[in-house]
């Protein structure tokens, strides 16, 4: 039929345009087959490597003084609202510090809690000059606490060989700094084991 001839002519012309380097005999040979497979080689997509955003190094952070508190900001009264927020945070974390609350449960929560804003006192220390220091924790690092006292003095207190007391709603907890040598982010994921300790 006439329609099939037109189709044959169209396919022949299409193949000629698509594959100009192929001879007419080869095209005719392809047309005698039942199926015509057009070869197509898609371009391989090169995967773009995601660039990891690099933060500041420890040296750069020190040079930029990112963690330093300016002298005019070192005032106890400025951080009292932070302490009020911390108290509410602990109450919510412990589902209310009720008289019948289990001490071990509260202690376990405090071990993993964020202490920025807590009022602590150095209860015991191998260095007598640290004993009695009381203030709000402004910064916690792996080995030290930075505490602002009521006298508006910023104290850097090492955790090692110091015992800190923390009081909230009548509940007093003791933190053995020597067993607490972790960053705040590391503490939240650490599993603490219950065991007695008498050393500093």
Q: What does this protein look like?
A:
This protein has 200 residues and is of the alpha+beta class. The chain has 2 domains: 1-32, no CATH class; 73-189, Ribonuclease P/MRP, subunit p29 (SH3 type barrels). 30% of the residues lie in helices and 19% in strands. The protein is built from 6 helices and 6 strands, in the order H-H-H-H-H-E-E-E-E-E-E-H. It has a 6-stranded antiparallel beta sheet with strand order 4-3-2-1-5-6. The longest helix has 17 residues, at 2-18. It is elongated, with a radius of gyration of 36 Å. This is Ribonuclease P protein subunit p29. Keywords: Nucleus, Phosphoprotein, tRNA processing. Component of ribonuclease P, a ribonucleoprotein complex that generates mature tRNA molecules by cleaving their 5'-ends.
Task: For the structure shown, list the relevant keywords.
200 residues, SH3 type barrels, 6 helices, elongated
């Amino acid at each position: 039929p006439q329609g099939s001839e037109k189709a044959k002519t169209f396919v022949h012309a299409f193949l000629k345009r698509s594959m100009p380097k192929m001879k007419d005999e080869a095209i005719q040979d392809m047309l005698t087959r039942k199926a015509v497979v057009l070869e197509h080689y898609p371009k391989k997509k090169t995967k773009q490597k995601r660039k990891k955003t690099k933060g500041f190094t420890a040296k750069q952070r020190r040079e930029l003084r990112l963690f330093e508190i300016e002298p005019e900001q070192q005032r106890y009264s400025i951080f009292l609202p932070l302490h009020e927020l911390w108290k509410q945070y602990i109450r919510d974390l412990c589902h209310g510090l009720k008289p019948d609350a289990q001490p071990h449960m509260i202690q376990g929560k405090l071990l993993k809690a964020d202490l920025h804003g807590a009022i602590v006192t150095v209860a015991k220390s191998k260095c007598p000059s640290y004993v009695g220091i009381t203030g709000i924790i402004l910064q916690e690092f792996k080995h030290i606490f930075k505490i602002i006292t009521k006298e508006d003095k910023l104290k850097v207190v090492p955790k090692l060989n110091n015992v800190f007391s923390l009081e909230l709603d009548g509940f007093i907890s003791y933190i053995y700094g020597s067993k607490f040598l972790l960053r705040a982010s590391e503490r939240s994921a650490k599993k603490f084991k219950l065991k007695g300790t008498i050393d500093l």
